[in-house]
Design brief:
457 residues, mainly beta, Immunoglobulin-like, Neuraminidase, four-stranded antiparallel β-sheet, 36 strands
Length: 457
Amino acid sequence: MRNPVSLLTLVLTLTAGLAAQSPVPVLYQPLRPVTVAPGGRAFTLTVHGTGLAAGATAFWNNRPLTTRVVSSSKLQAKVPASLIATATTGIVTVANAGSKVVSNPVLLPVTTPETAIHFNVASIGGVDLPQQVVTADFNRDGKMDFASTIAPGFRATTADAVVVGLSNGDGSFTQTTVPTGQCPIGIVAGDFNADGRQDMAVVLDGSAEVEIFVQTTAGGFRMASTAATGTTPGSVATGDFNRDGALDLAVTNNLANSVSILLGSNDGSFLPGQTLAPGSQPGPILVADLNRDNILDLVVGSGQNKISILPGNGDGTFGAAVNYSVGSFLRSFAVADLNGDGLLDLVASDGFANAEYVLLGNADGSLQNGVAYATGKDPLQVVIADLDGDGRLDLATANLFAGISILRGNGDGSFQAHTEHASTLSAVAVAAGDFDLDGKLDLVAPSVSNSIDVLTQ
């Protein structure tokens, strides 16, 4: 059997030769401005992120913008008035020079503020036990689509699969089903073969591996490769951990008490990297540069109430964890600059405490003590978005026993009391997008009621 240390050394050596290439950028909320009014003048958009290199280009719904890179963490782009003439939402991404691999998308609503938030709910039925959900512009038409894993198991009336919903721009979707291996749980979108189109990495709990689905020229998906993980994998996150211009993966393995790092090759395949041991029963995972060194770090929830920050080394490996005790049972994370101080803050869902913990960031990358904000019963996932168009980031949580909770932001890192929406839903995940192109951000939420529910404003 090959020595695992030697194998890791070989992988790092092979990828080190590509290190001169610019990394794949990661973008953070909020954009500046956070929202703009329809019919306004041309404006300068400020984007914050990690891995922004000289010559990078920002895109608005796949249209390139005149871009000036200020630093590795900041760029500015000129948005012409024609793009904001009417209410809509811009999908902002960035690619470094010479690469087709774009960053994660960040949304900029073109809208006016709302005094109240109201949702209309439409259900997509016929899905058996949906799990996690991700939004991305899969077909590059300037509209946010979704993909949700479904794992029916022994109660199956349908097979294990990913349901892909391509937005029609009116709140409805054209659905396709992508068959997967056994028990798909986690999912993340990214361009894993460097062809300029968004692909999917799907975590299979039943076989302890990740399946990589890349897009075909016909707009469908085909399985390109598989990569082994530890026992009972669950959540997955993506980022360019070794800064070679190819997206990598980090997968939490619950019963193995580990995190698997898988290093991408820009051809849809992945090589095994470092195996991390952040703590017992790791669950949620997130990628962000918390200490502002232009290298991606990992945020891992483990031991039910522990947040572990693992600083990146920039070569695909990570350093020793810095741990924080928060809440009682952490289910998901989200990150953004919530108080406008230029530092990333963390939001953590606590399923037992029925709360979201907000941990404001410090300049050295450490986190302040968490402040709890009540939600509906058993929040499983949180998403950050400006849902009321007032220029301040809000929180939306998927609650297993109380539908969707909305916590409107005050702009200083604090939040107002939650309001409940679609309270009869049993939501297990949530993601945001403007699905009817009216400038107001909407939500998509898989439910254990065997549906994927679309909440449009």
